[in-house]
Amino acid sequence: MNTDLILREHLAIERTRLANETTLLAYIRTGLYFLVAGSTLGQIVETTFWSIAGTPLIVVGILIMVAGVIRFLLIKKSIVMSRKNIGHSSAEFIRTVRGNNDLTPD
Predict the structure, then answer these.
(1) Residue 69 burial (CB count, 10 A)
(2) Residue 10: what pLDDT?
């Protein structure tokens, strides 16, 4: 088996893992923005609207963070499963991915 291909597969999975972590942090950051907005706007702007709108903003912030964690865990599980298949790709699959549909070997 081509060791360069195996190394590229390892590096691709590592990039995917890092992108997954970055996405989780983006979900958490967005959720925290909603939490802060919901908890402070009702106190800074003393109107009935912002007092009522604060609670849904807090709930949305928590839901965004929970959705981010769930998505992170699902993608992480998928990454772990794909890591098991490194180096076991058939020559036909590799030719198809590269766009070489002819039957000549590489």
Answers:
(1) 14
(2) 80
